[in-house]
Amino acid sequence: MVFFFSLLDNEAPSVTCPNDVPSIYVDSGTAMSTVTWSTSPSASDIVDGDITAKVVCKDNKGNVVITDGTYAVGLTTVMLNWHFPSFSAVSLALDYKVVGAVCMGFIK
Fold this sequence. Notes:
It is a single chain. A hairpin with a 5-residue loop joins strand 8 (74-83) and strand 9. The radius of gyration is 20 Å and the shape is rod-shaped. It has one domain (16-99): Immunoglobulin-like. The chain has strands spanning 14-16, 21-25, 32-35, 42-45, 49-50, 56-59, 69-72, 74-83, 89-99. The strands form three sheets. A four-stranded mixed beta sheet has the order 2-9-8-6, with no helix packed on it. Strands 1-4-5 form a three-stranded antiparallel beta sheet, with no helix packed on it. It has 108 residues and is mainly β. 0% of the residues lie in helices and 44% in strands. It contains no helices and nine strands.
């Protein structure tokens, strides 16, 4: 007698996402700034193991983004996407905003 069964992974994966980055002022003499995330994104699953290398981070324009990257003035939303072969895809988002400094001169 032969019988078959399927074992399914119903345990959610563990993911780490950086926190939103508060406003960052532009680097001196430029309209850009380097943005450092609070932590690097990571992901693991009881079946698939560590899949951090498969994390894809893209901005709201579809460009791949990284921590310590240089970004222009404005609000950027970063989508972090993981695909777990034995579970499903997971998506998280973080925002950061690069702002220009405003200097007010006083006339005496």
